[in-house]
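Build the 3D complex.
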Amino acid sequence: MRHDHIISAKQLSRADIEAVLDHAADIAADPAAYADRHADTLLGLLFFEPSTRTKMSFTTAMKRLGGDIVDMGSVESSSVKKGESLADTVRVVEGYADALVLRHPMEGSAKMASEFVDVPLVNAGDGAGQHPTQTLLDLYTIRENAGFDDLTIGIMGDLKYGRTVHSLAHALTNVDAHQHFISPESLRLPRSVRYDLHQEGAEVREHTELESVLPELDVLYVTRIQRERFPDESEYRAVAGQYQIDSETLEAAKDDLTVMHPLPRVDEIAHDVDDTDYATYFEQAHNGVPVRMALLDMILGGEPA
Amino acid sequence: MTDDQQLRVSKIRNGTVIDHITGGQALNVLAILGIDGTSGDSVSVAMNMPSDRLGKKDIVKVEGKELSQNEVDVLSLIAPAASINIVRDFEVVEKARVERPSMVEGVLECPNHNCISTEDEPVQSRFAVVDDGVRCEYCDTIIRDDLPAHILAE
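Done.
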């Protein structure tokens, strides 16, 4: 994996995934052992969209490996505002940093940017496209809590625009998970994702309500339905309400169900779930650090994969 | 067919004859080639002619034009059985069948307006040819139907 670009979950084999997760587990067990691993390394952060968790956890990961970050800052304060192309921006910044992390609002942006740079480039979200490092931390959380063997997972919410969903669904084909997709008709998985899952021979079922499938699930992965996807407020409210869960909803679930969410949540998981054993979303967010440490270490040449 | 019934399409001196086009696709072929008649060169089109091999076929004859590889690649997607004859001085000097490419570059525009390939960036659009259509190499969008509608404007 040395010096590879990490653009899409589709490029990750089962062996790649296991290698990153194993390395992340080693790091989580003894983070101090990695504190000086990349002392002279600078990670370039190019976030063309707002981000809290992803940006902070990449920053934390690089600093915990002994390195530092250089940050483009907001789009408003950068030369992008003057009309610079993305291809130019990344070619400039690769001269400042040993690896780049890119988040951009357009699909395919990370793939295109990677064609212009020689340093490893990590896709931290490209529009409604892919978010492979979120997928790795999701997989880490799933492996820790439910395991990969005979896994049945329900993925619910905005499946059309949710890039974490697109990445995760594809990655889960590597572990032969039984995948259930629960969404309103208007937000079902895009054709390109269904095509890929079909090509991979994945076992996929689509539903418009959670109730019938909930008792079977080992993992329920909830995503946010964004208001801006709907033409008006009333339509949004009518749909979104059906995809909210609370502790009462979960009475029908298995006792060892793992509830995940890439965060931020708005109201799709009620706060009364937070104190139950189901709630795993904060642990999931914390896992972003060891997983990104592992990935950075591997692409920067620390660990052969 | 007697001489009287023969297709009354004059021979061309220099240019391309595309034969064995899937019946009904000739106008799309012209669209791919960016040919609308305004250049003044002669263009002949025959549609839904009887064909042993295809049942019905279209034929296009274009004076003064030889096809680029990109044009042939897209052509192959809508007319997989087409044959291309290059004519110089009234003689066919080269005859080739189209081949389905694995990739078409710089010819189609991604229909996803949020795809980076539609922006002012120094890249060409790039589509992989898949079982039932083409797929954007940048954003993964699949185009199944009506490929000619997605041809990039010159």
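Chain A touches chain B through 21 residues (CB under 8 Å).
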